[in-house]
Each structure stands twice: as C-alpha cells, then as structure tokens.
C-alpha cells in the first residue's frame, strides 16, 4: 500500500467514525454511458497560468471489522489528489463527483465528500466512497474522472489507475 493510500485510509477511517452514527452512507452503482458535454482532460487548465493534473488510487477495502455491516456501501474508496503543474491552486476549488470508466462505460460514480476535502502541500485532496460492484474488480485498469468546481464552473480531469485492495 502506498503512503498516499495509507494516509487516505487513516483519514477516511477518522471521518467515517464521525459520520457513521449519522447514517451518511451513499451507494453508487454507475451504469450511465452517456458522454459528458465537455470531455475530461489529462491536464486541466484552471485559469491564467494555472494547470493541474489528477492522481487517484481506487481500492476496495477488504479489512474485516472496519465498517458497520449495516452500511456496506463504503468499501470502495477512491482517494483523489489534484496537483498543480503550473501556478497555484485557485481559492474555492473543490471536487464534485468522481467516476470510474472502463472504455466508454461509466462503471462507478460517487460524490466526493465535502467534509473530506482539504488542501495540503499545494494540492487539493478528496475522497469518494460507495459500494464496490461487479464492474470494479481488483486489478482492473480504469479511467478515474473527477469533476473540479472552480471559478463558477465545472471541468473534468482524468487519471488512469489500477484498482487495488487494502487488507
């Protein structure tokens, strides 16, 4: 497990322990294969001299006893990080929905939790989580697409990743 994944797991567990009693679990199944109005890009221009890229490490949490069995829709976790290649991170930037695509099909989608977004070392970090499904197996290469909300608009950025597993 990479340092990024371990830090994301620690953060996710900390936040989950606060939110679990409130019943704030959301399940995402995907299935929409309609193309986006303006397709995702690998390098995201955010403004004058501001360009970012996405890093993502989707994984299935297979650790026993971590999550309440009454809320199983938290076992697929997608930590995302928007890193600036040029310029500085714009104020007020946030993640919207995060989706996984395999070929032209969207196979998974969940909202990045606002309570789990933070700026660290000049990058925006976030986490989306929901149910794993038959189209999100460990080892599958997927395109992670994140909506980035900035300056009153929404853009999409992507990174290719392989679905991992935490034991």
From TrEMBL:
It comes from the Bacteria. This is Lipoprotein. It comes from Pseudaquabacterium terrae.
């Amino acid at each position: 497990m990479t340092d990024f994944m371990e830090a994301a797991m620690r953060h996710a567990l900390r936040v989950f322990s606060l939110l679990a009693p409130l019943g704030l679990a959301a399940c995402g199944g995907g299935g929409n294969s309609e193309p986006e109005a303006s397709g995702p890009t690998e390098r995201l221009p955010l403004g004058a001299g501001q360009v970012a890229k996405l890093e993502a490490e989707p994984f299935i949490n297979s650790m026993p006893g971590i999550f309440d069995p009454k809320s199983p829709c938290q076992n697929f976790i997608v930590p995302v990080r928007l890193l600036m290649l040029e310029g500085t991170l714009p104020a007020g930037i946030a993640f919207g929905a995060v989706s996984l695509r395999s070929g032209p099909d969207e196979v998974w989608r969940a909202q990045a939790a606002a309570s789990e977004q933070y700026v660290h070392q000049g990058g925006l970090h976030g986490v989306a989580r929901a149910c794993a499904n038959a189209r999100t197996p460990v080892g599958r290469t997927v395109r992670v697409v994140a909506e980035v909300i900035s300056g009153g608009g929404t853009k999409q950025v992507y990174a290719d990743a392989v679905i991992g597993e935490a034991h």
